[in-house]
Amino acid sequence: MARLLPTGPAQRFQLDADAVAQAWTPASRGVLLASPSNPTGTSIHPDELRRIDRVVSSQGGVTIVDEIYLGLSYDDTYGHSALRLGEHIVSVNSFSKYFSMTGWRLGWLVLPEALVAPVERLAQNLFICASTIAQHAALACFHPESIAEYERRRAEFRARRDFVVPALDRLGLRVPVMPDGAFYAYADCSAHHADSWDFAFDLMQRAHVALTPGRDFGRAEPQRWLRLSFASSRERLEEALHRLRRELA
Ligand SMILES: Cc1ncc(COP(=O)(O)O)c(C=O)c1O
């Protein structure tokens, strides 16, 4: 049974080794974290990940890192695969984000040799294989022209982040940790409302702007947080922020 551990801005909304060590029980088998993460766009510091991995390995467990947003990293301190820690790491990845193939249901795992056969047995009970058409389409992702387009988009996401985060701060929707990857900003709405769930509905009805309340993501002070996705175009983001300004000023 999976157990959620709370995180907050002081740890970049990521796990830390002490919390993992304290939560470990004889029934624990491993740790799963996402870096860069959804909903915060923040990554775990490589030193902290190393410490977590040491705790987990010393207990005979597996460190699993969801790196689906790794291709959309904007800071060299964080933008490296957990596989740098060694071949015992499990890395989860997908064509959905950097390669923009959302909905094609194509992804991959990098596994230690010993886990390949057990994971194959598990996977066989969930699906037969990735669709042929998705696999052929994915081959086109590796053409130099495709990579150039993905890099252009990555730069665009970064520019949107640099536009959106200060604008949210000015609206009293403070983003306590600068997202270093992905296309999300996780903002504190407590200066405006005691409950992000009600606030999100309120803003949807009044401003026609859709923000996602913290409750959709976990149980660590969910009423305090709202996620804004800056996957939308710059024009739409400008319009959304203009409408928020009208409601919140
Ligand atoms: C952190 C994270 N992991 C995994 C996924 C799933 O991606 P997909 O099933 O499209 O590959 C998402 C989707 O938003 C995500 O945010």
Q: Mind telling me the C-alpha Rg? A: 19 Å
**Biggest sheet statistics:** 4 strands, mixed
H-E order: HEHEEEHHHEHEEH
Query: Total number of helical segments?
Result: 7
Beta-strand percent range: 5-15%
User: How many β strands by DSSP?
Assistant: 7
What binds here, in terms of ligands, is: pyridoxal-5'-phosphate
Largest beta sheet: strand ordering = 1-2-3-4
N-end to C-end Cα span:
45 Å
**Structure class:** alpha/beta
Verbal overview:
The chain is α/β, with parallel strands linked by helices and 249 residues long. The chain has helices at 17-23, 46-58, 113-124, 132-139, 144-170, 196-207, 234-248; strands at residues 30-34, 62-66, 90-94, 107-110, 184-188, 212-213, 225-229. The N and C termini lie far apart (45 Å). The structure holds pyridoxal-5'-phosphate (PLP). Pyridoxal-5'-phosphate (PLP) is lined by residues 34, 38, 66, 68, 94, 96, 102, 107.
Top keywords for this entry?
three-stranded antiparallel β-sheet; four-stranded mixed β-sheet; globular; 7 helices; single chain; 249 residues; binds pyridoxal-5'-phosphate; alpha/beta
Q: What's the short version?
A:
The chain has 249 residues and is α/β, with parallel strands linked by helices. It has seven helices and seven strands, in the order αβαβββαααβαββα. Helix 2 links the parallel strand 1 and strand 2.
